[in-house]
Amino acid sequence: MGTSRRDFLKMGTFALTGVAVGTGLSSFSNRQNRDILGMQLYTVRDDMQKDPIGALRQLSKIGYKNVEHANYINREFYGYSPKDFKKILEDAGLKMPSGHVQFGLNDWDASKKSFTDQWKYTIEDAVIAGQSHLINPWMDEEIRTDHNKLMQLLELFNKSGELCKRSGLQFGYHNHDFEFDTHIDRKLLYDIILDKTDPDLVVQEMDIGNMYNGGGKPIDVLKKHPGRFKMMHVKDLIRSKQGEMGDSYESTVLGKGILPVKEIIDLAKRIGHTSYFIIEQESYQDQTSMECSKEDYITMKKWGL
């Protein structure tokens, strides 16, 4: 089925990754009462690789107004400068309020007691592009079970949140599955992440599909940590050993899988403080990614988004 998202991240494609764009969430804190529906562009990654402008126009034609990027390399979004890509989005009738960039211990220069120039450039480009949220979608394996390194990283999450805030941005973290089957000192990794990050500085983007694959139950997590999830990756799953989840599941069109997605969304609105819902589908069964994107959009609109 091609490279999975987790393999994509592991290969370090995001080493120079920046973040999303657009004013769709650019005053996000002032728009908490509005539900924002978006599409993670990794869903249509092949289309974005072949023809970014055409792919964005197709998404806009379907009805999408917001997208979330998954590609920023060498200070470019999908091969375009932040300024040019923002213009491309605007011409397509789209905004890109958030995006993914890998962040780690190597983004801090201990000798200077400051963030690296690379990370500062990422923030600078995000501002130029109209970005409001920088979301880190990964945590290196060596950190997950090393208490000292984990504490260092989570401290940097908060520091990055402070730095981003000075530029009018908000830093965030997006979970995979390992946070829900990894323990340190008998404590679940995800609970540690939420305990050690300042809610005002580090937004949580809950990926309900990844979470379920790791053994986490989205409804239970929402109840355990109310108010912590401004953003959500909306997915549905079917059982499979061929898809991106690897062990047990792959994503499918919303409403056709095993997750109670609408129930999760409704609860997230009520107690999660969630207002930005991003569709992500990485496997398509016998359809194209654009066909799935259209079905997903129609389903979310039926569900009131």
List key phrases describing it.
alpha/beta, single chain, 8-stranded parallel barrel, globular, 305 residues, two-stranded antiparallel ribbon, 12 helices, TIM Barrel
Account of the protein in words:
38% of the residues lie in helices and 19% in strands. It starts with a helix and ends with a helix. It has 305 residues and is an alpha/beta fold. It has one domain: Divalent-metal-dependent TIM barrel enzymes (TIM Barrel), CATH 3.20.20.150. The chain has an 8-stranded parallel barrel with strand order 1-2-5-8-9-12-13-16. A hairpin with a 2-residue loop joins β3 and β4.
Helices and strands in order:
Blueprint: H1 5-10, E1 36-40, H2 45-50, H3 52-62, E2 66-69, E3 72-73, E4 76-77, H4 82-91, E5 95-100, E6 108-109, E7 114-115, H5 117-129, E8 133-136, H6 141-144, H7 147-166, E9 170-174, E10 183-184, E11 187-188, H8 189-196, E12 202-207, H9 208-213, H10 218-224, E13 231-234, E14 236-239, E15 249-252, H11 261-272, E16 276-279, H12 289-302
Parallel strand pairs: 1-2, 1-16, 2-5, 5-8, 8-9, 9-12, 12-13, 13-16
Antiparallel strand pairs: 3-4, 6-7, 10-11, 14-15
Helix pairs in contact: 4-5, 10-11
Number of strands: 16
Order of helices and strands: HEHHEEEHEEEHEHHEEEHEHHEEEHEH
State the major sheet: 8 strands, parallel, barrel
Strand content: 15-25%
Number of helices: 12
Inertia-based shape: globular
Which strand order spans the largest sheet, edge to edge or round the barrel?
1-2-5-8-9-12-13-16
Mean pLDDT: 90
Helix content: 25-40%
| Number of domain modules | 1
Q: How far from one another are the termini?
A: 30 Å
Q: Round the Cα radius of gyration to an integer and report it.
A: 18 Å
CATH architecture: Alpha-Beta Barrel
CATH topology: TIM Barrel
Class in CATH? Alpha Beta
CATH superfamily: Divalent-metal-dependent TIM barrel enzymes
Structural class by secondary-structure content: alpha/beta
Unreliable spans are 12-32
